[in-house]
Design goal:
single chain, four-stranded antiparallel sheet, elongated, 190 residues, eight-stranded mixed sheet, 26% helix
Length: 190
């Protein structure tokens, strides 16, 4: 995961929060407005050292704070990333739960670990049942992202588009499938 990309997200949003989680084995996280990123494999970092290292000026550039404790999450429902990205004012990536619910994640929140190949996603909920998408590299949680939840009309439209894409791809595959040429010599000899 690229810490520089996380810092860039925080700078654009004007806010960085360093989270120390003593109950979570002493883990440390950097939080932007809608996502939290685990500092895995990073030596212990303090807020002043983080600001100095990435040239952050809390007086003018960005609001920085340190908090202790991270929201407890329960559940662990696997999600599937749908094979499309949706662009409008920002790019979002849809994820689908087994119950058919669609969750959208802003692409910028996926950027710090976009090149990690073995990342899985699951759905967890906080004490108020608010959804959080949890991303893992192997068994290690590397990010928690608060998703956007689309309305029913959006989900219906998205499912229609995906169905149409599936039908189109099946038709293209059928057309491109090589139909073996008949062997005329064998047919004549029979």
């Amino acid at each position: 995961m690229k810490i520089k990309k996380i810092i860039d997200i925080c700078k654009k949003e004007g806010r960085l929060t360093l989270i120390s989680d003593p109950e979570g084995g002493g883990s440390r996280w950097i939080a932007a407005a809608g996502a939290r990123y685990a500092l895995v494999g990073v030596p212990s970092v303090t807020l002043p050292s983080l600001c100095a290292l990435y040239d952050l000026d809390p007086e003018s550039d960005i609001s920085v704070e340190e908090i202790f404790g991270k929201p407890g999450l329960t559940g662990d429902e696997p999600l599937v990333m749908l094979p499309m990205w949706i662009e409008s004012t920002s790019t979002v990536v849809p994820f689908k739960a087994p119950d058919g619910m669609i969750y959208l994640v802003r692409e910028k929140y996926l950027a710090p670990f976009a090149k990690d190949r073995e990342v899985s996603c699951s759905l967890k909920r906080d004490g108020w049942q608010n959804p959080t998408l949890v991303f893992r590299a192997g068994l290690v949680e590397i990010a928690e992202v608060e998703p956007l939840i689309p309305d029913e009309e959006f989900v219906t439209t998205l499912e229609a588009i995906l169905s149409g894409v599936d039908d189109f791809l099946a038709e293209v595959e059928r057309r491109n499938r090589k139909i073996p040429e008949p062997d005329y010599e064998e047919d004549v000899l029979r």
